[in-house]
Amino acid sequence: QQRRTRGRANRARYAEAPAARRLSVPRPVRSSSGPALLPVIVAAVLSAGIAWIVATRRRRRVERAAAEASLEASRVKDALTNVKHEIGTPVTSILLAARILSSRKISAAERGKIVGKLTDSALRLERTVDLLVTYAALRGGARAVSKAHLDPASLAQASARRLGELHPGRRIVVRAGESVPAVAGDASLVRAALDQLVDNALKFSRSGEAVEIAVRAAPSSPGSCEIAVRDRGIGIAPADQARIFDEYDQLDGSATREFGGVGLGLAFVREVAGLHGGHVEVRSVPGAGSTFVLRFPPASSRPVVVRMRKRRVA
User: Fold this and answer.
1) Which residues have a Cβ under 8 Å from the Cβ of 89 and sit 6 or more positions away?
2) What is the rounded CA–CA span in Å between residue 272 and residue 185?
3) Mean of pLDDT values over 84-89
4) Which residues, 6+ apart, have CB-to-CB distance to 260 below 8 Å?
5) How far apart (Å, rounded) are the C-alpha atoms in residues 204 and 25?
6) In this structure, how many other beta carbons lie within 10 angstroms of the beta carbon of residue 292?
C-alpha cells in the first residue's frame, strides 16, 4: 500500500514539472563556421597532394639521371680500358722485340720472325691510332670530305689485297656485278670504312671460312651502289643489331674478351656512310654469320667538297 502511494505521488510531481526539465537528452549544437572551413580543408589536401606528386617526380628524375650518369661512366671506363689495351698491347710487343734484337745474338730465322711480329704490331698500332684520330676529326668537323667518282669494284679488290696481307692464309673473295654505278665519295674514307667491315668479318669468322665482298647495283634504288661484306661467323642476336653501331659499344666489352678492338669500327662506318648520303645496315643470324651492306646514293655529275661544321662531342 505504501509503495502504491509513493508511486502515485511521483507520477503527480512528474506531471506538474515543466516539459524542458522532463526531457534531459542534450541536443546537438550546430556550428555556423563549418561551411566556411570546407574550402580551406579541400585546398590544403590538394596542395599536399600536388606537393607529393612534384617531389616524387623530381626524385624519379634525379634517380634516372644518376643511373644514366653511372651507366655512361661505366661505358667511358670500359672504352678507355679497351683503348689502352689496343694501344698498349702492340707497344709492348714492339718494345719487347726491340730489346730482344738489341740484347743478344740471334739467328737469321729468329730475326725474321721477330721482325715480322714487330711489323704486325706496328701496323696494328697504326690502324688503331688512325681510326681514333679520323673518327674524332669527323665528329668534330675538322675534316673536309672530298667527293670524287670512285670505282666500287676497284675499292673492293684493293681492300681484299690489303686485308689479305694483314691476315695471311685467310680467303677474301670479291664478286662484282655488271654495270655497277660509280660511288661519289672520299676515297680515303670509303677505303677505311670498307677495310673496317672486311677486318671485322675476318675477325669474327671461323678459321678457314672465306669472307665475301659483293659489289652490285642497289636493286631498290636506280643509280645507287651496294657493297656487301659477308662472313660465316658467330652472327649477331636481333636485340644487339642496333647497338653495335654505337660509339665504344661492344657485345663483349670485358678486358678478357675474345675479340679485340676499341668499339669504334662500326660507328666509324656509319659516320662515313652518313657523310656520303648513304647508310649501313646489317643482316645476321646467330651462328650463321652476318652481312653488312654499305649503300651509296647515285653519284653526282661533278666532284664536290663538303666542309663539315664543327660539332660538339658529348
Assistant:
1) 121, 124, 260
2) 9
3) 76
4) 85, 86, 89, 203
5) 95
6) 23
